[in-house]
């Protein structure tokens, strides 16, 4: 009885993992582990952002991951994993806002990326006293299109 | 008492095992179902992206019928067909008003009468066909029928020129001209309206803006080809050819500018002409009319040689901030929308206020209510200025009427009439424009303030 149960579970898990592995391959899942911006346009919804980025001022100095993932191996892949899961969920169910809107957490990531590379100028223009962190004017408030339009 | 099934510890273990197995089953089922759903969705998107369209019919430069184009481009065609919708906005849009069809006019639905909404228009246009019947414009789908059956046709003999912008004329012109677009244009212009009407079947169609082979945008209407050449010549660019020299983004406005413009019928041959020889602004266009001395009709009350301005959307847009920022007509009136893996222009051409999300929020990241309020604030202000200018014009018309009756000197009257002509054209330029100032708020205000000034100068001239 135990053996049958074990066999059944193993079969079940095998089917699930087979579908999973196939989907991972078919969806070019491995490319998402790389730094290649083209991977982000695997999903058609990113095509226009990718096209825009290729024409933007940042194309030669920053790829998608430079602005949209935090530095450090663990935070970087944790962000990728979280976004990967929620994006898959949103696009599979079709429930997402159009035009696309960045989520607060991801906005923070990009904001920090701007401030990291442009630290010298940020330091020069940032007010000395800031009572609340949300009082800081986000870079993208004015520079909304430096990475890509929209 | 040795029955193993009654051993409580064993029963508990077994039950636990089954519960566990059940949970694992449920979890694996859920995950597999989710992954499969994603797999299928990815598969569908990949298929959609592979073929942006399926060529099921061959389109040629003679295919007028949009339904034929629609079999290759069903998504765009669906949108195009939805231009039958009648939806009001605060200062525009059309309301479906039922009417009893007659033999002369088979329409069972029309739009609301602008003349009933604002009876001052009748006095402004006294003696002209527009004072008899003028309704809010409806969607593209109605352009041909609404022109064919307007009461204006009963009080004035319209030339074939009108069809330039009320039907798909590209193929008709080429046929009439023996292959030459411009020759056919000249020929149909000179026919009486109902003669020329026999040459066309459809309202604006795919072929009017798209090349049937490449789907690229192109300008097919002679009025715009010649008008933009004249405008560019005034800016020092000679021999401008819109179809080879305009950028793709410019074309996304120029194809609309083929018709949504101010125009007049030049000379006895009734050649459709866009009066852009001195520029696109209302007063620059007026300056051109002053130079040529053209008039649309003599005002029935005052005898002034007056002009009718017609929907100068392209001109007003050109003066606004959106044009300056490189935003074309299509960006707001036919915004991109996503259908599966495809991104297409929404061919349901309509007011952006009815589609704030796609039309505005792509660039302006504020709530819809905020954006609607911004638009309506601009429009309410323009509407108020338009009212002031209209009252000023009517005061001038009243004054001229009284002065004529009381025998005021001829040259004083003529001077007042000249001011009426100017004031009336500039007011109509904003009144006829279908954005109630939104396309270029400050420009609309500038034109209206000039109109008011001319009306008051006209009154002063009678003193």
Report on this model:
The complex is a heterodimer of chains A (150) and B (463). Chain A is mainly alpha-helical. Chain A has eight helices and no strands. Chain A has helices at residues 2-26, 37-40, 47-54, 64-68, 73-93, 104-117, 119-125, 139-142. The mean pLDDT of chain A is 88. The mean pLDDT of chain B is 93. With 463 residues, chain B is mainly alpha-helical.
The count of strands of chain B amounts to 8
Termini separation of chain A (Å)? 60 Å
Mean pLDDT of chain B: 93
Distance between the termini of chain B: 126 Å
Strand order of the largest sheet of chain B: 1-2
Radius of gyration of chain B: 29 Å
Count of helical stretches of chain B: 21
Biggest interface, chains and residues, is: A-B, 25 and 30 residues
Order of helices and strands of chain B: HHHEEHHHHHHHHHHEEHEEHHHEEHHHH
Order of helices and strands of chain A: HHHHHHHH
**Strand tally of chain A:** 0
Q: Tell me, what's the shape of chain A?
A: elongated
Structural Rg of chain A: 20 Å
The residue-averaged pLDDT of chain A reads: 88
Biggest beta sheet attributes of chain A = none
User: What is the share of helical residues of chain B?
Assistant: 40-55%
Strand content of chain A: under 5%
Task: Give a brief rundown of this model.
Chain A is mainly alpha-helical and 150 residues long. Chain A is built from eight helices and no strands. Chain A binds chain B through residues 5, 8-9, 12-13, 15-16, 19-20, 22-23, 26-27, 43-45, 47-48, 88, 91-92, 98-99, 101, 150, and chain B through 17, 21, 24-25, 28, 31-32, 34-39, 41-43, 45, 48-49, 337-338, 341-343, 357-358, 361-363, 365.
Which terms summarize this structure?
heterodimer, A: 150 residues, mainly alpha, 0% strand, B: 463 residues, two-stranded antiparallel ribbon, 21 helices, 51% helix, elongated
């Amino acid at each position: 009885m135990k053996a049958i149960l074990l066999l059944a579970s193993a079969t079940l898990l095998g089917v699930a993992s087979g579908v999973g592995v196939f989907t991972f391959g078919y969806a070019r899942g491995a490319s998402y582990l790389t730094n290649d911006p083209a991977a982000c346009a695997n999903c058609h919804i990113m095509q226009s952002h990718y096209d825009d980025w290729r024409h933007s001022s940042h194309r030669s100095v920053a790829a998608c991951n430079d602005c949209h993932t935090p530095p450090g191996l663990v935070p970087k892949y944790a962000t990728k994993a979280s976004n990967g899961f929620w994006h898959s969920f949103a696009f599979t169910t079709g429930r997402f806002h159009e035009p696309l809107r960045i989520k607060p957490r991801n906005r923070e990531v990009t904001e920090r990326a701007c401030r990291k590379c442009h630290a010298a100028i940020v330091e020069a223009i940032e007010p000395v006293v800031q009572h609340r962190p949300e009082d800081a004017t986000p870079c993208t408030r004015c520079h909304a299109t430096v990475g890509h339009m929209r | 008492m040795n029955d193993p099934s009654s051993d409580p510890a064993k029963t508990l273990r077994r039950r636990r095992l089954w519960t566990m197995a059940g949970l694992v089953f449920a979890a694996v089922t859920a995950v597999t179902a989710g992954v499969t759903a994603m797999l299928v969705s990815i598969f569908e998107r990949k298929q959609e992206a592979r073929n942006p369209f399926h060529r099921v019919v061959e389109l040629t430069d003679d295919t007028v019928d949009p339904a034929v184009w629609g079999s290759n481009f069903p998504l765009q065609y669906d949108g195009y067909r939805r231009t039958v919708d009648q939806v009001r906005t605060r200062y525009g849009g059309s309301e479906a008003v039922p009417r009893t069809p007659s033999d002369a006019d088979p329409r069972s639905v029309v739009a609301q009468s602008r003349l009933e909404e604002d009876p001052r228009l009748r006095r402004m246009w006294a003696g002209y066909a527009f004072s008899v019947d003028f309704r809010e414009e409806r969607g593209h789908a109605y352009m041909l029928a609404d022109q064919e059956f307007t009461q204006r046709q009963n009080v004035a003999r319209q030339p074939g020129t009108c069809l330039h912008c009320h039907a798909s004329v590209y193929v008709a012109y080429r046929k009439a001209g023996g292959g030459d677009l411009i020759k056919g244009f000249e020929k149909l212009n000179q026919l009486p309206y109902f003669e020329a009407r026999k040459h066309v079947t459809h309202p604006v169609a795919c072929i009017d803006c798209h090349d049937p082979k490449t789907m690229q945008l192109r300008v097919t209407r002679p009025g715009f080809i010649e008008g933009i050449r004249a405008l560019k010549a005034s800016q020092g660019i000679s021999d401008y050819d819109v179809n080879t020299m305009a950028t793709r983004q410019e074309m996304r406005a120029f194809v609309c500018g083929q018709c949504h413009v101010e125009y007049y019928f030049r000379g006895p041959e009734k050649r459709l002409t866009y009066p852009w020889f001195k520029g696109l602004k209302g007063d620059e266009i007026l300056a051109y009319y002053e130079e040529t001395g053209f008039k649309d009709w003599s005002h029935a009350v005052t005898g002034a040689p007056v002009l009718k301005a017609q929907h100068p959307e392209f001109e007003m847009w050109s003066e606004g901030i959106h044009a300056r920022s490189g935003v074309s007509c299509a960006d707001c009136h036919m915004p991109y929308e996503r259908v599966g893996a495809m991104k297409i222009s929404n061919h349901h051409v309509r007011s952006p206020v009815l589609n704030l999300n796609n039309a505005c929020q792509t660039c302006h990241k504020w709530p819809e209510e905020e954006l609607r309020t911004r638009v309506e604030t601009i429009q309410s202000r323009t509407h108020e200025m338009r009212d002031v200018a209209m009252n000023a014009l009517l005061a001038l018309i009243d004054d001229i009427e009284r002065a004529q009756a009381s025998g005021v000197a001829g040259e004083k009257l003529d001077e007042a009439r000249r001011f009426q002509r100017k004031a009336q054209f500039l007011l109509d330029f904003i009144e006829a424009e279908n954005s109630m100032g939104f396309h270029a708020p400050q420009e609309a205000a500038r034109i209206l303030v000039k109109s008011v000034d001319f009306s008051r100068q006209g009154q002063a001239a009678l003193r």
